[in-house]
Design brief:
The chain has 245 residues and is an alpha+beta fold. Helix content is 50%, strand content 27%. It has 7 helices and 8 strands; from the N terminus they run ααααααββββββββα. The strands form 2 sheets. It has a 4-stranded antiparallel β-sheet, with no helix packed on it. Helix 2 packs antiparallel against helix 5, helix 5 runs antiparallel to helix 6 and helix 6 packs antiparallel against helix 7.
Length: 245
């Protein structure tokens, strides 16, 4: 069948990979030229951003749909190729080396599907500004967050450098989590990561910090699939034994 041969072809993978790279290169330029359109893209769940802005200006977002289409075609190509080859392998001699490329394919599919889960079911709550000793609601989570302490170490240039925030999460006035949030060291609770993004001082001289709360339900699966992909690649690069070709 012509369609099946197309979907299992290595040429399809190569050309689609090239299209993916071209779309990504165009997107890197378009995002810089249209900051008003793409500037808040990372502050929202991807599916929500597409629903709000993805169709508002078709020309600058055309690359994005090309990228998504290329990703979908790569995933279909990997799935069809793996199914086609696994049937042949299982009917013959099964060796680890023959299976490893398809382990990579399955890991790639795991990454794509996990990102899809996060893109649809994730949550982004940006810009939670809290003065020291103050409390703010954390989106629709039902939590309130208090900034108990804020510490900032100046950089050699004299501007604020590394900073940390001690916070407490409450639900109905009951403390449910407590910890220190640093740059790239979030506080995790019930699937959300609390990140400190900015800091400053109010006109009254009170330090404040700005937080984001993000939930990525597919993050753990992405990490597991990426590790599996890496392990399969490393094993495949090892010299083949006589009985494992």
């Amino acid at each position: 069948m012509a369609l099946w041969r197309l979907l299992t072809s290595l040429k399809t993978c190569a050309w689609t990979g090239l299209a993916f790279c071209v779309a990504g290169a165009v997107g890197s330029v378009a995002m810089g030229r249209y900051p008003g359109l793409f500037g808040d893209m990372d502050s929202h769940v991807f599916a929500g951003w597409v629903a709000r802005k993805g169709f508002s200006d078709p020309a600058p977002t055309l690359w994005l749909y090309g990228l998504l289409l290329a990703t979908a075609l790569l995933a279909v190509n990997a799935a069809c190729c793996t199914f086609d080859r696994l049937v042949q392998i299982l009917r013959g001699t099964v060796t680890l080396r023959r299976l490893l490329p398809h382990v990579m394919h399955l890991a790639f599919l795991g990454v794509v599907l996990s990102h899809l889960v996060s893109a649809v079911y994730g949550d982004r709550i940006p810009g939670i500004a809290i003065p020291r000793g103050g409390v703010a609601l954390v989106g629709g989570t039902g939590w309130a967050m208090r900034l108990d302490r804020f510490d900032s170490a100046p950089s050699p240039l004299g501007v604020p450098g590394d900073f940390s925030a001690t916070v407490t999460l409450f639900r109905d006035r009951t403390p449910i989590a407590h910890g220190v949030v640093r740059t790239n060291e979030p506080l995790f609770h019930e699937g959300y990561g609390i990140y400190v993004k900015e800091s400053g001082t109010t006109i009254q001289g009170v330090p404040y910090a700005v937080f984001d709360a993000n939930r990525d339900p597919g993050a753990a699966a992405v990490l597991a699939a990426a590790l599996l992909f890496t392990a399969a690649n490393l094993l495949y690069l090892l010299p083949a034994g006589r009985n494992d070709a």
